[in-house]
Write a structure and sequence with these properties.
alpha/beta, binds NADP nicotinamide-adenine-dinucleotide phosphate, globular, about 15% strand, about 240 residues, Rossmann fold
Amino acid sequence: MESLKGKIAVVTGASRGIGESIANSLADAGATVVLAARDANRLETVRESIKTRGGQAVAILTDVRSADSVAELAVQVEQQFGGADILINNAGYGVFAKVLDMKLEDFDGMFDVNVRGVFLCTKAFLPGMIKRHGGQIVNIASLASKNSFVGGAAYSATKFALLGFARSLMLEVRDYNIRVVTICPGAVNTEFSDHAKDAHTIIQPEDIAETTLFALTMPARTNVSEIDVRPARILK
Ligand code: NAP
């Protein structure tokens, strides 16, 4: 098993939900975590909680929709830590409506964060990983990258796009010793949506954090490139 001790990990969307859980797990595993999102107060709460448990974390306010903001994040990480070993492309959101009712601003907004944001972050950190001949990029996609459902046309389109992006990226960078992992969760218990959640069956954010840690700590010769995470059972 590979160790994360001494690794620098950037987590987008680390202010709550899945990103917060992944940040906690990576810090507990010995990585120094760079928490990137827009909500300063929530980022600070996550940072404090990691520090209280003896971990290392810094918060850098970042809006993944902005090329300047992402470029500034990469500069800060380079200056403070000499670059990132791990990038977790997690920031994302969903607006669910039938195509007839979907607003253009929501359609564009989801593509800006869920797809363009991943492109910007990847492009910002890839040169450093290539220079140091190593790195790992984890993309938090969704089962909506593979499945279709009523009201999911726009969100699903962003996550299908992300999966397509990630599959090509994985092939493009593996000869630089950079591994790309894409995780496709089903519904997870976060603030992401107000869909009914069955407390007995719903996946918890910690489960996605554990999945991420599993992929990141595989032997360096192996790339677990894609993982679907489903509820084990659906209670009727
Ligand atoms: P969440 O609790 O709503 O958290 C979303 C995170 O994304 C927040 O930290 C938010 O931070 C960040 N974010 C949103 N827009 C951003 C922006 N422009 N720049 C930087 N950060 C931004 O949702 P979640 O469930 O943890 O979702 C995390 C990822 O998992 C998303 O990509 C989502 O599509 C995916 N996913 C979720 C589920 C689910 O059922 N929960 C299932 C499959 C996949 P700020 O608001 O502070 O910026």
